[in-house]
Each structure stands twice: as structure tokens, then as C-alpha cells.
Design brief:
alpha/beta, 7 helices, 11 strands, about 25% helix
């Protein structure tokens, strides 16, 4: 488990012994910039890793009941985690496009997913559910990232899309980087709706107060009509 963040993790991915990781698997957890390590370990070790909170969140002030329950249920019981639910009835989910699919889930922080393109650690989205989220990225920045993924063929390859909560991904107050009235929902609809694949947005899988633990590499079911996302395989044995 990483203590916090994960900035700079991409600097070490060419120095890891992936065969050793494959032969002696351990639970690997973390989110945000640690996405680089998730992608590399999955690609070269076949290891199921966990998009989940870092150690620094495990204190009385920062660890919500939702985050704690999801973490220990997913990592402590050798059974499928089941449906990842909203952290509160007041939260909302948006179906970008309807439909359902079952496939392994890959992904992480959108900025780091894009940074993997053109490297040996490039994300493989073929017939997979692409999960992504981000933080402090204005809608026009998210537009750049999704355009990059589309141009790289990754959106076309994916079986469906699970977009987690994107914290503060709105135009910056007073001094936006690019003056426009486009929302993140507009950007997601523009890129994903024409693909006619199931796409759901809004579950607590990101930089918000609540963070569900998601095992990456296991088979999941995404139903954008029912607005459900269910982990079908256990992440631990």
C-alpha cells in the first residue's frame, strides 16, 4: 500500500522485476498517480491489483465508513466484492449510454492512462471495461485526454466505460484555463455516446471523500440501464 498519492511512480516501472512479482504475488493497493504501477503490473505480471485508498487515509478524520467497509470487505474476504454502490442516496449516477457488458476491468486515473500511451506499459483496452477518473482537471483538459484515447483507438477497443467520481473537474473559478461553458458530462457524452457501448458515470471510484476498493483485472458486469457495476470475481484467494 502506498502512503499517499504516488507521484513519480512511473519513474520506477522499468526497474521492477515483473517475473518475481508474478511468482510471489502480494496485495498491491493505491490510486491516482500509482495508476502507472497498476498498468505495468497487470500487463507484465498478470497481477490483480486494487484501486483503493493509500495508507495516509487510514486515520479517524479521513477514513469514511464507506471507504473502510469496502476496503476490508474486498481485501479480507476471498469472494467477489459484488455491486459497488453509491455512498449516499443523495448521490447521483448518469448513464451516458445504455446497455450491459461483462468483461475484465482496467484503468485508473485518466491522466496516467494517457501517459502510458506509446510506452511498453500502454493500457490494453481490447474487450475490457475501461475505468477512469481524475481530479482538478477542467472539462477542456478531460476533452484533451479523451481525444487522445480516441485517436489511439482505445475507446473503440473497450467493451464499456465505468467513469468514477471526478473531483473538482469543473471550470476553475475566476481564472479558468480555457473560457467555455462545457461541462464534464458534455465531454463524456460527446466522446462516449456515439460508440453505443454501455457507459456509466458517478460511482465513488476516485478522489472524493468516499472511495470504493476496485480490484483491477477481474471480471465485472456493467449495466448502464440499471445503473449498476458489479465485481464478479474475487480479487484475493
Amino acid at each position: 500500500m502506498q502512503p499517499r498519492g504516488g507521484y513519480g511512480s512511473a519513474q520506477i516501472i522499468d526497474k521492477l522485476d515483473y517475473e518475481l512479482i508474478r511468482r510471489k504475488p502480494k496485495i498491491f493497493t493505491g490510486f491516482s498517480d500509482i495508476t502507472s504501477l497498476h498498468l505495468a503490473m497487470q500487463k507484465f505480471s498478470g497481477l490483480v491489483t486494487f484501486y483503493s485508498p493509500g495508507m495516509a487515509r487510514f486515520n479517524e478524520e479521513d477514513l469514511s465508513a464507506y471507504t473502510k467497509e469496502s476496503f476490508f470487505r474486498t481485501l479480507g474476504i476471498p469472494e467477489p466484492a459484488g455491486e459497488i454502490k453509491k455512498s449516499s442516496p443523495k448521490k447521483w449516477l448518469t448513464s451516458i449510454h445504455g446497455g450491459a457488458c461483462e468483461a475484465p476491468v482496467v484503468g485508473g486515473c485518466l491522466t496516467l492512462i494517457c501517459a502510458s500511451l506509446g510506452t511498453p506499459y500502454e493500457i490494453d483496452c481490447k474487450d475490457k471495461i475501461l475505468f477512469f477518473e481524475d481530479v482538478d482537471a477542467e472539462p477542456w483538459i478531460m476533452d484533451h485526454a479523451l481525444s487522445h484515447l480516441r485517436n489511439a483507438g482505445k475507446l473503440k477497443d473497450a467493451a464499456g466505460f465505468m467513469i468514477g467520481h471526478c473531483e473538482n473537474c469543473v471550470p476553475y473559478d475566476y481564472k479558468p484555463g480555457f473560457v467555455c461553458d462545457t461541462t464534464l458530462e458534455d465531454v463524456l457524452t460527446y466522446y462516449l455516446e456515439p460508440l453505443k457501448k454501455p457507459a456509466l458515470y458517478g460511482l465513488p471510484l476516485g478522489h472524493g471523500e468516499d472511495l470504493a476498493t476496485l480490484p483491477l483485472g477481474v471480471r465485472c458486469r456493467l449495466d448502464a440501464d440499471k445503473k449498476t457495476f458489479t465485481v464478479l470475481e474475487a480479487g484475493v484467494i
